[in-house]
Structure formats: structure tokens, C-alpha cells
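Hi L., both proteins are below.
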Amino acid sequence: MGRCFCPGPVLPSPQFGPMSKSLLLYHCHTILDFLSRGCCEEPVHDSTSILCGFGEVEQENNVHQSHSHLAMPITINDVPPCISQLLDNEESWDFNIFELEAVTHKRPLVYLGLKVFSRFGVCEFLNCSETTLRAWFQVIEANYHSSNAYHNSTHAADVLHATAFFLGKERVKGSLDQLDEVAALIAATVHDVDHPGRTNSFLCNAGSELAVLYNDTAVLESHHTALAFQLTVKDTKCNIFKNIDRNHYRTLRQAIIDMVLATEMTKHFEHVNKFVNSINKPMAAEIEGSDCECNPAGKNFPENQILIKRMMIKCADVANPCRPLDLCIEWAGRISEEYFAQTDEEKRQGLPVVMPVFDRNTCSIPKSQISFIDYFITDMFDAWDAFAHLPALMQHLADNYKHWKTLDDLKCKSLRLPSDS
């Protein structure tokens, strides 16, 4: 297969701030290794020390694994039957992303992405070939770290799946333009690219290079968007934006950036409150026939479209508690393990322990899930459900909450009762 992208010089465009030398060397190393192995292989990440800008990080090496070689499809019609059969169900909320992860040898993003983007006519909108889109997905997926328990390309594929599901809901579809849909799908795909498996607080406390670069503000989210665009535009073979005009590109780019930055949790409650006050309350007043002069959600209100897109990707990003119970449990185990690893690392390095509850020796996973749902999920999904109408998700949320409460009442700290394992 031909070269997908070239680790050329830092882009001088003001759209892309210059990368530091060590970050550039890191990405060049990754790219060169990826190219030397072929686009179907996974890059070797020796560690996150170069990425994070300090030598003591001891994250598990993302050593290349000898997966059985799985040829990348030329088009969506060329995927192996076992994958194609799974993807037949991708429009269902109960779609099992972990089965796709297994059958694609930890490359679910390319396959799900091609199917979803085809369904939404993304190639036609961007005027790019499916070959270019496939190359882009491969580049993006290669820059997710498969050694991360949670923040890997399976999570990206899961968020893409949720975003596509939300875009199919009648009120969401009626409120957004096709550019919004395309931007949302791209944002979901890239929203955690090159995530090191550590939180923003960890990177800031460690004085990492990324934290210095982004002034301790939305460090990872800024990095995800910047890297995504740098990887995309470096080579025409994977530049999905190469055939759209400058103004179109700028609008699309801004929408993608805005959505990815909205996944940063320090402004979580601000985003939810804006959505409730600007979307839900006026909508309820309109439905009730109120005389209130409030703007309903719709295509004539760009400010409302922005709020809808932010809320959509935020919900997609943390939709795990609203998945079927078996999927919810698997995600809870994965995020807990990633947080345990961070706490282990903080203790080894003498850094502040950001999340002391996630100590693998003392943590109650049910309690952590109950707290997460109570603090972040319930109000946000109540608001999103009021707009998008998602009864099945809300039922899953109630069932899953009951599962965690039952375990907690029984003083069980694990994912399931021992008899259920």
C-alpha cells in the first residue's frame, strides 16, 4: 500500500500552531514506524515520555502486537463477511462495539467509520474518494494508543456510533445542516486521538510538555484537535478536506474544534445549563403554546445549533452508563483500570494523587459509577432526552444504576457479584 502521509516540516499556516521539536520528533517517529510496517500495522509508541514532555512516565509500552493480518477494505463493500454481518446492526443503540473490536483485531474505527460515513454521505459532501477516507481513518486510528485500557480507538468508535445514533433522531436531524452532521462525525472520530491514558490534571501536575504548550488549559482536547488536523493535511492521500473551498473548510474546522473542546469537563455544567436554558425551556414553552418570545431550536438559529452539537458529543463521549448492562460493565472496568494505572503512576512519581478514590487496593467501582451518574450523567441525559427523545437509553441508565446500587448495598466493590462472574 502506498504512503498515507509524510512527516514533513511544521505547517506555517496560522491555523496550526508550530509543534515543539520533541513533539514533532515523536510524531515523526510514530509515522515513520507506521509507514515502515505498512498501513495495516500499528505504530510502536515506546512510551508517552516524549509526548508528555517528562522522562519519568512509565506507561506500559504500546509494543506492536502480532495480530493476524487483516487486509484493509478498498471500499465498504469489500469488508470480510464476519465484520460486515456485525456492521449490519450498527444503527442499533445496542450495537456491541467490543465484538467489532475483537473481530477487527482492535481496529474497529476504520470499519465502523467507513460504514457510518457512507450512510451519511460524507464523501459526497467533502467531494473526496472513499480511498482517501479510508487512508484518513487508518492514519487517525493508528494514532490512538491500543495499550490504553479505555482511551483507545474502540472508545473513539463507540463515540462515533453514539453520535451517528443521535444524528438519526428526528429533532436532532431537523435542527442541524449536513455540514453540522459531517463535523460531528469527524469530531467524534478524532476527539481523543493520541490520548496518553492520563488526565489533564496529571499532565499539568507533572509539568508535561503538552501542559506547558497549552497553558494548563484544555490540554488534551487542544492536542487532539491540533494533531487531527496536522495528520489530515500533511499528505493529499489522506486529506479529506483537499477538495473543499477555503471558507467551507474554515466553517467545518471551527465546528470540529468547538465540539472536541466541549468534551473537556471543567465546563460541563456550563454547557448543560446553556442547553437547558436556550434549547429545552424555549422548546417546552413553544410546545405548551406559551406567549414567551423564545427562539426554538432550528436551522435559523446558529447559536442553538452550536449548543446542540456540543451537547450531542458530550453525551456521546460519556454514554457508557446508558448502554446495555453488559457493555456498561465492560466500559466501567476499562475506565477504572486506566484510572488505577494513573494513581499507580502518581504514587511512583511522587505526584499529587488526583483521584484518590481510584486506588486499585481500596476502590469500590460501584460507588464510583453511582457518583459519576449522580454528578454528571443524570441531569445531562435528562436534558438531552427531553430534546432528542431517547427512552431506551434512559431505561438502560435506570437499569444500570440499579445494578451498581445493588452491588454497593451488598458491599461489593467489583463489577459484578462473584457468583455472576
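That was the first. Here is the second:
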Amino acid sequence: LSQCQKQLLTIARAILADPDIMILDEATSSVDTRTEMLIQNAMLRLMEGRTSFVIAHRLSTIRDADLILALRDGDIAEQGTHEDLLAAGGFYADLYNSQFEVNPKA
């Protein structure tokens, strides 16, 4: 099995287990962008009504979270919703913009 297939099987197991609390650590790191979007849509429905912790470097993965904790050097640098953190223009906004800017600065 490829790394992507292993990751998808692990997510499927988590869904079937129907836990009260979910911890997803880089759950979509080995999948392509299109597959990530499909997984995110399924996970939004799955996480409804339960406590979920999602750890991710791809900030698109956590965009819809109720609360985002942005960590810098192991400490919470900022917290809030995606929209609030972008509006604040701080650490999270810098990270997010660096992942999605079309022409990165030299």
C-alpha cells in the first residue's frame, strides 16, 4: 500500500470506531489536494457533535475549525477562528499567506 492508501485506511478506521474524541495528527499530509478536500468534507460531518483535535501544517486543513491554536516554538502564539486570525495580521496570517501566495517574496 502507498502512504496515501495507508493514511486513508487509518481515517476509515477512525470513522468506523465512532469515538467521542478524535485526534487527527497530519491526517491528510500524504494525499493530493483534491483528495484532501474530499476527506475534509467527510471529516467535517464526522467531527460534528464531538471534540476533535486536528494537528496540521497545511493550514487549509484547519480553516473551518471552531478554534485554532497557532503554535510557535512550542508555545501558543495566537488563538481564534481562521477569519479572526487573518484579520489580526499576526503570526497565523503570515503562515497562511506564505502557503497560499502566488508570487512568494524573494
